[in-house]
Design a protein that fits this description.
With 396 residues, this protein is of the alpha+beta class. The protein has helices at residues 12-23, 36-41, 50-58, 63-68, 88-91, 102-115, 165-168, 236-247, 298-319, 323-326, 328-350, 358-373, 375-386; strands at 5-8, 28-31, 47-48, 70-72, 74-79, 82-87, 97-99, 119-121, 125-130, 138-143, 146-151, 154-157, 175-190, 200-204, 207-215, 218-225, 260-274, 277-278, 281-283, 289-290. The chain has two domains: 5-46 and 101-174 and 275-352, FAD/NAD(P)-binding domain (3-Layer(bba) Sandwich); 179-267, 2-Layer Sandwich (D-Amino Acid Oxidase, Chain A, domain 2), CATH 3.30.9.10. It contains 13 helices and 20 strands. It starts with a strand and ends in a 10-residue tail after the last helix. The chain binds 8-demethyl-8-dimethylamino-flavin-adenine-dinucleotide and P-hydroxybenzoic acid.
Length: 396
């Protein structure tokens, strides 16, 4: 088999890259370890920045998102017995977020690729990227019990944090920056109408509890839990009681409950691998960097990386110009580090830390108070949350 760009991973990064390349007249094949059904039903992110929304619309895959996505012009920070709205329409005029499940983005992209005759090989086992330090990269893999080789001009490693591409780069080339947090998130998807029109980020001494949603009928919640928590300790009744204890802190506000559709626990960490390239192998999305989900940035960074990579590959194929490819990592990392800082900052602002003493807690309270009473401070949160433009300016 031969193609121009071999892509490992059919998550948002790999699928969007394949779609954008196709629109630039560049062929690719996507190799995905899991089944199509698994990829389309993995519940993860829900918040799309304005820039990601614009990219999806511009690439012709925004139709269902425009119909079913929920456009939000603010979020609520809830702490100390009161709610405080961060008003995007006032603080970052013309910019908003769209709440639309990651698995819906994945379904739309898979449908678009298959409709255009694109190749996605699901259930590809033992994927091994090779030869990318020279002119003939290839990826070997097993499908249907048969070992095969995909030759390509380039390999795009879009295989997530636990993928194989990053580790295939020779030891000593990459520098890792890593931070683990002393808690995890228990994510809950429930068949109940959201109890709020906008997302609520509730910071309480019992721990953090964001209330999000997927549709007018489906809510999404998270609970800060200990990092090695066992989901067996969280029967549905305990989940609802804890969500109520953390969210029903404002007079007159009550949490609607309903059947739990899905629940799971995720560890929280920050991670960056630099540079995001080696020879003819380019890393994109979670394969190169991850953030704690507090700032809702992971999927949005993945979309940005592959937009940069598409432009660089297009310049190489159309004009033989390798300067954008050479500068790929540098072009991505500036935004990656902005999102790293924002995600770390939101995480430390809103969670409760066992290690904090009374002084640390007062600092946290003071910053939350400042954030909600100063327009400059809330504008900084707003512009990072809706997403800075490609040049890290709020005007795009
Ligand atoms: P993915 O989505 O992990 O996709 C990687 C794909 O590669 C496949 N794969 C392999 N394929 C072939 N060979 C191998 N050896 C392979 N190993 C793995 C995997 O099966 C998979 O299909 O990475 P990608 O595409 O870079 O996308 C990144 C996003 O998924 C991630 O950043 C977000 O989900 C993070 N995130 C959020 N991001 C946002 O922008 N907004 C949010 O609101 C948000 N909320 C979240 C989140 C992540 C969460 N979790 C579960 C970590 C909420 C949560 C709880
Ligand atoms: C989600 O809807 O899954 C979500 C919302 C906000 C976050 C993270 C995840 O910060």
């Amino acid at each position: 088999m031969r193609t121009q760009v071999a892509i490992t991973g059919a998550g948002p990064a790999g699928l969007l890259l394949s779609h954008l390349l196709h629109r630039s007249g560049i062929e690719s094949v996507v190799l995905e370890a899991r089944s199509r059904d698994y990829a389309e039903h993995r519940v993860r992110a829900g918040v799309l920045e304005q820039g990601t929304v614009d990219t999806l619309i511009g690439a012709g895959v925004g139709e269902r998102m425009l119909r079913e996505g929920l456009v939000h012009h603010g979020i609520e920070l809830r702490f100390g017995g009161a709610g405080h709205r961060i008003a995007f329409e006032k603080l970052v005029p013309g910019r908003a977020i769209t709440v639309y499940g990651q698995q819906e983005v994945v379904k739309d992209l898979i449908a678009a690729r298959l409709a255009a005759g694109g190749q996605i090989l699901f259930e590809a086992a033992d994927v091994v990227p090779e030869g990318f330090d020279g002119p003939g990269p290839r990826v070997s893999f097993t499908v249907g019990g048969e070992r095969r080789v995909l030759e390509a001009d380039f390999i795009a490693g879009c295989d997530g944090f636990h993928g194989v591409c990053r580790d295939a780069i020779p030891a000593g080339v990459l520098t890792y920056f890593d931070k683990e947090y002393p808690f995890g998130w228990l994510g809950v998807l429930a068949a109940v109408a959201p109890s709020s029109d906008e997302l609520i980020y509730a910071s309480t001494p019992r721990g953090f509890a964001p209330h999000s949603m997927r549709s007018p009928q489906v809510s999404r919640f998270y609970l800060q839990v200990v990092p090695d928590e066992d989901i067996a300790n969280w029967p549905d009744d305990r989940i609802w009681a804890e969500l109520a204890a953390r969210l029903e802190t404002v007079p007159g506000w009550s949490l609607a409950t309903g059947p739990v559709l899905e629940k799971g626990i995720t560890a929280m960490r920050s991670f960056v691998a630099e540079p995001m390239q080696y020879g003819r192998l380019y890393l994109a999305g979670d394969a190169a960097h991850i953030v704690p989900p507090t700032g809702a940035k992971g999927l949005n960074l993945a979309a940005f990386d592959v937009t940069v990579l598409t432009e660089a590959l297009a310049a190489w194929y159309s004009a033989g110009d390798s300067s954008l490819l050479d500068g790929y990592s540098r072009a991505c990392l500036r935004r990656v580090w902005r999102a790293q800082h924002f995600s770390w900052w939101m995480t430390t602002l809103l969670h409760s830390f066992d290690s904090y003493d009374a002084y640390d807690r007062r600092l946290q309270e003071s910053y939350l108070d400042y954030l909600c009473s100063s327009e400059a401070a809330s504008a900084s949160l707003a512009e990072n949350y809706v997403g800075l433009g490609p040049h890290l300016r709020s005007d795009g």
